[in-house]
């Protein structure tokens, strides 16, 4: 454990030239303010400021630095605490490495989130453009619909006028319509009679065609029967000749026996 008791410059304290960059610091109530109780002076020959380093393997080490505020600070650095032991330095280095890795990971996540935000913003802008186009198209559609409704109203008025004129014309032509209906009914009746007669004629024609087909079929059957009879007669004549030959042979055989 490091002792935080005040101590002056000694042989264990280190001095670093003004070219060295001062480390980052952390607030420490036990070691802060001006080092008025110490003899160390900065390059301005002024009292130094007590600070605690918070930078890599030097984290927690006390040092003295320039305390000027009105004029540019010098790079005076004087370590009060000696270097930490090697195990502690390795632990600090590992902790700072983990901290830097975490910062890199956080930075990477921030980049990913930023890219996602950019994508979301672009999509939002695209949606806003689409919404504007939709609003314009919708307004145009509403205007066209209103125009169509106005035209429909005018058309309905014109149809109403035409209907009134047609009703008047129907009243004036009522007698003519009655005669026309009578003539039409008579013509439809005659048309039905002609259609019925035509159907009867077609039916008779179909019957005649059927009878003709039957006659043709019967004629073909008779022709086949006639051919069969001819074959049978031929067979009979052939058998007759064979029988006559057999009778002659029997007569000859009888004559030889006699």
Automatic annotation (TrEMBL):
Keyword vocabulary terms for this entry: Coiled coil
Keyword Coiled coil appears in the UniProt entry: yes
Coiled-coil positions: 184-225
Coiled coil is among the record's keywords: yes
Protein name in the entry: Zinc finger GRF-type domain-containing protein
Organism from which the protein derives: Triticum aestivum (Wheat)
Species classification: Eukaryota, Viridiplantae, Streptophyta, Embryophyta, Tracheophyta
